[in-house]
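mind reviewing both lines:
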Amino acid sequence: MNREIFRPNKEFSKNARIKNMCEYHELQDWATTDYEGFWGSYAKEKIDWIKPFDNVLDESNFPFVKWFIGGKLNVSAQCIDRHLGSRKNKAAIIFEGDRGDKQIITYLELSYNVNRFANLLKNEFDVKKGDRVVIYMPMIPEAAYAMLACARIGAIHSIVFGGFSAEALKDRIIDADAKVVITADGAFRKGIPYMLKPVVDEALAGETPVRKVLVVERNFEDITWVAGRDYSYNEIIKHQSVKCEPEVMDAEDPLFLLYTSGSTGKPKGVQHNQAGYILWAQMTMEWVFDVKENDTYWCTADVGWITGHTYIVYGPLAMGATTVMFEGVPTYPDAGRPWKMVEEYKINQFYTAPTAIRVLHKSGEDEPTKYDLSSLKVLGTVGEPIDPPAWKWYYEAVGGSRCPIVDTYWQTETGGHIISPLPGATPIKPACATFALPGIIAEILDENGVRAEVGEKGLMCVTRPWPSMIRGIWGDEERFVKSYFSDIKKDGKSVYFTGDGAVYDEDGYITITGRTDDVINVSGHRMGTAEVEAAIKKHPNVAEVAVVGKPHEIKGEGIFAYVVLKSDNGIADELEEMRAINDVIKKEIGNIAICDDILFTLGLPKTRSGKIMRRILRSIAKGEEITQDISTLEDPSIVAIIASAVQI
């Protein structure tokens, strides 16, 4: 597993918060030998407590742990109020709309907007501490105001991604027992208005707990207004006071719910609490991205996902940074859009998904050369392992071979990064998550809880609780324990299992191999789909790939690959292209992993956040009827196109 190593830029390291691996090991040794002292020290340093905590950690009812017991704070105040002295005129949020409209919101303006929003919810809608508020919004500043307003008055927000269907929205509203929905009439995507309010109307048909709907008028398209239920944010907000005292919250009070979809069953309402979450959000912003006082930071995610929560809103604002919010898609009006924004706003840290990187590479390989990207200091990736070709283009074309790439590994349930390079310290191996962050006690274990040997695939676990970890599944304690703490024990004690496989190399680096349930059993040999996909991506003409299992009368299960090529030239002879791809697989894995079926397609079914819906591809490969909701896909029509091609 030898890979080329990219060492930190010496000039960058001089001013980094963690400057070398010696400092990293000192921090990790501190956490290992004095766990509570480590976390307690950072909690005292980073959080402006209304009342200091009495104890750092209570594990007596594991896995229902408590952090910073007795401490009182308000997350909205942590993100806004404490910056109003020296940073009140600093840009808190830079917003760029899909059509190029721009807003710069200072910390003082953010304070006014959030306080008005909080007063609206409290005084007009009777939202109280502990009430649940569902937010179904586009990527506009009002989404951030809504989140922070809920935090200010102690309401628990639950954001539902704006691409989800009415049925998915309704399920989450009912499970959270939400009394208010905050939405928008719609927004803009690729220059065209799209609608959200009609989806809310459909979701609220029939019996739901929702009594009021607040509508931000963004695109001013015609919508239906339900008397006594629907209210215009644009009108009501004008009459609200800019002063709202922050609610005093306990360290372990819930901050938000975020629903994750499993492969089957009802969505899980992942619960994150106040102090531990905001502490780690801020610490990882400072350590992983090394954001400094005058930096401008851009994460391209949507607030509907955990990445948007932690690394667009809460993390950047908690540390007093300038964060960019972008409504559009990176390839509109062309693939130069992100690089134009980097040049214009002098962006220093750029954080996006491998899917976006591959799309930008495919549709605009030379676009970065047209712009001044010299402001960039750190590049980041999130959401899935990044393949080496995409990593190389990102490093060379975007980062000018000088910016470290932090390939961050984490989940909705972890609240923030848990395994990642440190840009000023970690020698980076492309497509490798590297090491656990200081304070995260992570290990690759086998099914018996024994540490995996070098090169031996195991299970990625965290063996001690950490402050930003999931605190429960809303309304379902049994499912919480069963989902995360029932599979693996170490020294007789349950540990958090991420659901992912991983492997150590000879230097102790961690590489994530993908979900352990995304496994194909070919002739008795178990292979992770991520491993096969990684091999196929090494073919020079492959832009994207998704691999699934397909029933095989001899092998039990065969491998079916859906492949998007960078160039259509190779499709002139499909058999030749298939042979070339299988030759790569033979070289990388062996004959056992060659594909029985390869379908060349112009696209893959992906959500608007870029996630490939492999469940749909699995159903197509098996010849099954598509029963999944495809309304949330970026391009729903691709499903029928692929299905027709498979049937031919």
About this structure: The CA atoms of residues 103 and 275 lie 30 Å apart. The mean pLDDT is 92. DSSP finds 19 helices and 32 strands in the chain. The first helix runs from residue 10 to 14.
